Amino acid sequence: MLKRMEKLQFLTTGARVIAREAEALSVLSGTLDDSFAEAAATLLAARGRVIVSGMGKSGHIARKIAATLASTGTPAHFVHPAEASHGDLGMMAQGDVVLVLSNSGETPELADLVAYTRRWRIPLIGMAGNPDSSLLRQCDVKLVLPKVAEACDTGIVPTTSTAMSLALGDALAIALMEHRQFTPEHFRQFHPGGKLGARLQKVRDLMHNDLPVVRTGTPMSDTLLVMSQKGFGVVGVEDDTGLVGIVTDGDLRRHMDGLLAMTADQVMTASPRTIGPDQLAEQAVAIMNERRITCLFVVDPPTSRNAIGILHVHDCLRAGVV
């Protein structure tokens, strides 16, 4: 059980670290200049891939930047500088662009990789905290991190410096993404799995094509049979113009007296809420929650009555869309 003083000490330290890193990011934002735009343009012009590299903590940040670039439309991968000296330089080629991270700009393990880019005229972007460092003196584009103290009181643990490097990498990735007009649909192609992939699924990916529908004038005895066979708990009602209504459990309860003497169009709820096939499944769930319904008929075009599918809330839940 934590003592009160220990708890306060932990909370105070945590708040101080976050505040210092937030301040560092604010300083970084104010120092962006033409070199950032030049770096983005250089990455955009790459005919091949963006190679991101760094050693130690900078290497971990470089891996994340490469992953973010790759998932937002800029082909990229990470090359470890030590492995580069033992054969992985072959992963780089003319047409690529190299982005190297080093807070000091003096990381010895980067020497062979940097030399390779100079030998083969591969554009080199450097990100470091010292504008006069060996790394930045050799780079085509220099991204200089502002002089900000690390978050720890000793000043030796990479904290604010790595936070700034990560933020600057994210800024480059998003700048490129927006320039390319990269859409959620593009993102889904690179990220089909996990929570994000589920959120970006479209209605057409989850809908059923075997529609529970009857024609206007169909006796309720036959309508109930279709409702039971299809298993959605609803039946659509169509005429020559398309979908005109829907029969739900609620409609059945409201017309219990003399139900079997009626037709589907006498019982149905007219002009039911529908959704287009290219809308996000997440939007469908929002509509169903708002209307307190369990199914949506899918129409194409979205403003028509041409039903092409049906989506049940359970289909969305199974796919992880909530």
How would you characterize the overall build of this protein?
The chain has a 5-stranded parallel sheet, sandwiched between helices. A 4-stranded mixed sheet has the order 6-7-8-9. The model has no long low-confidence stretch (mean pLDDT 92). It folds into 2 domains: 19-182, Glucose-6-phosphate isomerase like protein, domain 1 (Rossmann fold); 203-318, CBS-domain (Roll), CATH 3.10.580. The chain has helices spanning 4-31, 34-44, 57-71, 81-84, 111-119, 134-138, 160-179, 184-190, 194-199, 203-206, 220-230, 249-254, 264-267, 281-291, 313-318; strands spanning 50-54, 76-78, 97-101, 124-128, 141-144, 213-215, 235-239, 242-247, 269-270, 274-275, 295-299, 307-312. With 322 residues, it is α/β, with parallel strands linked by helices. The chain is built from 15 helices and 12 strands. Helices cover 46% and strands 16% of the residues.
How many β-strand runs?
12
Give me the oligomer status. Answer: single chain
Mean pLDDT: 92
Q: Rg, please?
A: 29 Å
Number of helices: 15
CATH architecture classification name of the largest domain: 3-Layer(aba) Sandwich
Structural domain tally:
2
Low-confidence segments, ≥5 residues, pLDDT <50? none
The SSE order reads HHEHEHEHEHEHHHHEHEEHHEEHEEH
Q: The biggest beta sheet, please?
A: 5 strands, parallel
Stated plainly, the CATH topology of the largest domain is called Rossmann fold
Distance N to C terminus = 37 Å
Q: Quote the beta fraction.
A: 15-25%
CATH superfamily placement of the largest domain:
Glucose-6-phosphate isomerase like protein, domain 1
Identify the CATH class of the largest domain.
Alpha Beta
Q: What overall form do the CA principal axes indicate?
A: elongated
Helical proportion? 40-55%
Structural category:
alpha/beta
Strand order of the largest sheet: 2-1-3-4-5
